[in-house]
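Anyone up for a design puzzle?
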């Protein structure tokens, strides 16, 4: 229905300013990042969405370790407007990698592991033209930030990029499942830029907000 796979080109630090792959979190947790996609067709087209697949990046070397760190759960949130709600789903977490068995590389050069998350049994019904918003957050006792994987559509290589706009949306959340995450008014543009001087890590993407992000107490973090 909507296909945006992992990037196959311009991976990791070797790509320099053309790096396509990033992993974003927010500090402090449990604010988090998500995305959206638009269903094709008009209001006469009716869709039933059973599965949403996303990817996450972590220092955890296997699924057991990942679930141990985020021991209170990994939650999918969905919605059609600026407010999301926790969406019941069956979750399967699978270790994966880029083509050629490459792992994610942090901007400091460290290896990070990629996990594919398949949320199934959703039964989300919507008509053509509807924009479906979603986000994923992992929580746990003293857990670190949850890093959602993303990539720049134009730099990712010859793969489908259905309904991509090169933006990730930030959601404010209290951390309580019963409370709805709300779009913060801040979107991260997946455009690679180089900042600093030789010897400092590059920062990818810029923050396009209705107000300056750095004037807030919530800071975008990149793995």
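Challenge accepted. My sequence:
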């Amino acid at each position: 229905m909507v296909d945006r796979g992992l990037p196959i080109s311009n991976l990791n630090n070797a790509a320099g300013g053309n790096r396509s792959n990033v992993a974003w979190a927010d500090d402090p947790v449990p604010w988090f990042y998500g995305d959206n996609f638009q269903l094709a067709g008009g209001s006469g087209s009716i869709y039933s969405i059973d599965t949403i697949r996303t990817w996450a990046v972590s220092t955890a070397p296997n699924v057991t370790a990942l679930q141990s760190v985020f021991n209170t759960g990994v939650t999918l949130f969905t919605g059609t407007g600026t407010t999301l709600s926790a969406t019941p789903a069956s979750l399967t977490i699978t270790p994966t990698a880029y083509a050629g068995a490459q792992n994610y590389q942090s901007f400091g050069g460290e290896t990070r592991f990629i996990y594919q998350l398949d949320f199934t049994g959703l039964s989300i019904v919507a008509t053509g033209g509807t924009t479906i918003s979603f986000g994923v957050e992992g929580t746990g006792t003293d857990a670190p930030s949850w890093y959602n994987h993303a990539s720049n559509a134009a730099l990712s290589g010859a793969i489908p990029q259905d309904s991509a706009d090169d933006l990730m949306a930030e959601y404010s959340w209290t951390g309580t499942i019963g409370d709805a995450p709300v779009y913060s008014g801040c979107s991260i543009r997946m455009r690679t830029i180089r900042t600093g001087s030789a010897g400092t890590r590059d920062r990818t993407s810029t923050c396009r907000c209705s107000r300056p992000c750095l004037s807030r107490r919530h800071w975008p973090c990149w793995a």
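A detail worth pointing out: The first helix runs from residue 63 to 69.
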